Amino acid sequence: MTVRVGVIGAAGRMGSEVCRAVSGTDDLRLVAAVDPHHGGASLRDVAGIDTDLTVAADLDAIVDADCDVAVEFTGPAAVGANLRWLLDHDVHAVVGATGISDEDLAAARETAAAGRANALVAPNFAIGAVLLMQFAAEAAKHLPHVEIIELHHDRKVDAPSGTALRTAELIAQARREVPEAPLGDDRHPGARGAVHADVRVHSVRLPGIVANQEVIFGGAGQTLTIRHDSIDRTSFMPGVLLACREVAGLDGLVVGLEHLL
Ligand code: NAD
Predict the structure, then answer these.
(1) Residue 9 belongs to a domain with what CATH number?
(2) What domain range includes position 224?
(3) How many Cβ atoms sit within 10 Å of the Cβ of residue 205?
């Protein structure tokens, strides 16, 4: 069966990559593209694919095109409302945009549990990053002293990254003790990073980077560093396509690509 897919945020870096990836498959069909800042533009020009689709300014295009699934890659300001809209309109959602609030996520979870549409929300669709999170959780059982350094391009609006926040949460769930904070005062506020789920997170933003993350564990006389590098946005596409194929079979709203692997 062909899955009819719409892309929200279609003109963005990730959205246009998703349009290319979906249109390169035999079993998924790209039938709608939404981006209010590029409404009316030819998707051929925006994404460089062979299509007659026009970018729509409004979410109604998703329902008008009878989408089974919509892929959401906008950003923190729009993702919560868009996810709710999709679930309210019985469209399965694959959410890649990061920065969704806890309140919006909880509300979407309730809507999905009560309704007919499911959602897969993944802060990182790269298999290597998913493995990094799993390895970090395993290591945290034995090495509770840990800090995260995440590095992204300078156009990213949210910090820390969704991947870093999720990694910190998985570490917090896995480790058996929370070590005492190291001594020393923070003479330059921010020098020691932010704290999420009792884990220090440091965010680097520079041009030239796509998305990298290091998780550094320290123990007596040793350190362990786990690192993942997305050097190209194609790294996220196998995970996004898998989610498009599998989201209809989920039960409500699920967070994390690992649930599909
Ligand atoms: P981008 O700024 O290049 O693209 C975002 C696009 O969304 C823009 O074209 C913008 O016009 C559009 N947009 C804004 N508001 C909208 C709305 N209300 N409806 C529809 N479209 C709207 O950003 P990007 O680099 O493509 O990243 C997008 C998001 O994906 C970010 O939150 C980023 O952190 C996240 N991201 C997630 C993963 C993952 O694996 N989950 C990987 C990379 C990036």
Answers:
(1) 3.40.50.720
(2) 127-230
(3) 15
12 CA → ligand 1 middle, Å: 6
Beta-carbon count within 10 A of 256 CB: 17
Please state, in angstroms and rounded to a whole number, the distance separating the CA atoms of residues 105 and 249: 20
Whether residue 160 has its Cβ less than 6 Å from ligand 1: no
Of 74, 151, 152, 232, the residue with max ligand 1 atoms within 8 A of its CB, to mutate for a pocket test, comes to 74
Instruction: Check if 80 has its Cβ closer than 6 Å to any atom of ligand 1.
Output: no
If asked whether residues 148 and 219 sit together in one domain, one would say yes
Ligand 1 within 6 A of CB of 217: no
- Same domain as 96, residue 139: no
Of 38, 92, 145, 156, the active-site residue reads 156
Is residue 141 among the annotated active site residues? no
Divide the 261 residues of the chain into consecutive groups of 10 and give the mean pLDDT of each group: 96 98 98 97 96 97 98 97 98 97 97 97 96 98 98 96 96 94 83 96 97 97 98 96 98 96 89
